[in-house]
Structures are given as C-alpha cells and as structure tokens.
Amino acid sequence: MDMSSEPDDSGGHCSTADSDGEVAEEIAIVSFERKLETAREIEAELADRYASIDILEYHGEIFEEYWGEYDCFVGLMASGIAMRKTAHLLDDKWEDPAICVVDEELTWAIPITGGHHGANQVAQDLATMGAVPAMTTASEAAGKQGVESRAKAMDTHVVNGDSTVKTNLAVLDENLGPVARLEGPRAVLVGDDVTVLKRNADDGIVLGTGSVSGASKEAFLAAWDQALARTDYGVGDVEFVGTATRKEDEDGLLEAAQERDLGVVVFDKETLLEHEGPTPSKSKELIGWPGVSEASAIAGGAEQELVLEKISYENEVTVAIGR
C-alpha cells in the first residue's frame, strides 16, 4: 500500500458498521448438525484471530434471527442456501454483516457479500486450513489492494464509504495516487471521489523495515522484537510495518506481519528520499535508494520522528522505529 505524508502527488503506494476497513471481529459459523465437527475444527483454527466465534446450528430462520449481531457469518453450506436465506435481509453494504461460505471438505472459501468488510478476511484465514479463497471483489481479483484493505493495513477506517466506488476504480486503473497523511488541527475540503481514512488510535509507532532478499519470517520477527525491546513500546503499539515498494513481495516480511496481525505499508523511492534517516546506507550509492528502515519509519509516523535509529539483525533485517 503506497502512502505519502504530504498532501501532494509525490508519495507512494468489528467496529462500527460504516468503518470496518475489512475488519471482522465477531464471527458466527452456521452449520447443519451433520457438519458440526467441521465447524468446531474451523472454530479451533481461527479462535485466536477474532474476538469471538460462535457456532450456530442451522435452521430456516437462523440468519434472520441473528442478523446484525455478528460482523461475519461463515456458512458451512452450499452458497445457494446462504444466498436465498439472506437476500431479503440485505440493505446496505456498509451495515450488513459479511457472509462467507465454505464447503464441508474445506475446498473453497467463497465471500458472497461484504468482501471488503470481513468476508475476504475470513476467506484468507480459511486458506490456512486448505480452502482456496475465491475472492471476486475487483481489486483483489486483479491482485491489487483496494482502499478498504489499505485502511486495514494502516489501522484506520473509512469515514465516507460511498467514495470507495470511485477510489477503488482508480486502484484498478493504477491512478489513485498517494495516500496523503494530514495532521490537525486542520480543515480539509474533499470531493466525493476522495476517500477519507481516520486513524483508529490516537498515537502509535511504525516499524520501518528493510532486508536482504529472501530473509526468513523468523528473522523479521526476531528483528522486530529486538528493536521493540530497546524502547518502551510493544507490539500492541505498532500501527503498521513500513517498507519500500521494492520489498513489498518479500514472503518472509508478509508472513511475519500476518503472524503479528500487522499491516504492511510500502513507500516509493521518491517518498523515502524525502524522509531519509540519519544513518548512511550503501544502497543509496549502489541503487539510489536511501536506507529503507529509517526512511519508512519517518515517513509513516504521525510526528515523522525516529524513536529508534536503524539496528541490524543477523545482517538480514534492519529495523528503525518512528512515530
């Protein structure tokens, strides 16, 4: 996800119903009696990823009975059943619960409604049990990060939901532009094609992270722990992990971030050069990029200042902390 800290074109790449940003916290697994064992397996696998997971035995009015009480229903059933039993309940995509169906063999996880508001998230989690996430939301189908996904990565929520139709079209056309970070007090006038994201926490830190190619998940986790141990902050204080666009496909980084439930925000070269840190980096001489860890920590922080300058772990991963 690109993000700029300035309101110009130079930058880079469950809660309330109208502000999820792809977050689901309270889940209900709806299952026929004969499939309850599978439902319990799903509950056990996903238990530590959600605030609560309940198992509801299916009957004809089960969705109507519990509509609005959960962020997402996981239907352990044919998609046609879930569609017919919920169609008359659907009203507003920002307020309706998400629905994801999965077959008994855990072959497919299919978001039906609320893809950006929990169903895609649940489908991806079910992939750890072998299910293939069949996501059809346009941005995800094209392999791009929609605005709601960006909001989740940055620990923010969408304020004006209707705007995402236009901004997600811009994502598909690759002309959305940077996410401008504005700190107040300030008044901002926007049009209906500008999506406004509001931070979920008043303050927090950014784990600026660089690495050699192919660094392992374990190296990233150890590096972050080592860096945090040198401060008064913990994992719970982290807003997101910041890195460079050239590192956005590092498997170890993405796996480590997923394990810690952290979003990853990537910055383009121009943004990082504008926020270069104090520690010299050989990469600037070799390829023209500044040190990724310090620059992304500074660029991502609300105050744009370093809490911890770059440290290195096993010559694989570098970490700096910004706020």
Automatic annotation (TrEMBL):
Domain of life: Archaea
GO annotation, biological process: cobalamin biosynthetic process
Region (Disordered): 1-20
Keyword Hydrolase: yes
Pfam family, one: CbiG_C
Enzymatic class: hydrolase
GO molecular function: cobalt-precorrin-5A acetaldehyde-lyase activity
CobE/GbiG C-terminal domain sequence ranges: 205-321
Entry keyword Hydrolase: yes
Keywords: Hydrolase
UniProt cross-references to Gene3D superfamilies, sorted A to Z: 3.40.50.11220, CobE/GbiG C-terminal domain
EC numbers: 3.7.1.12
Entry-linked NCBIfam families: PRK05788.1-3
The protein, known as: Cobalt-precorrin 5A hydrolase
Top-level taxonomy: Archaea, Methanobacteriati, Methanobacteriota, Stenosarchaea group, Halobacteria
Designated gene of the protein: cbiG
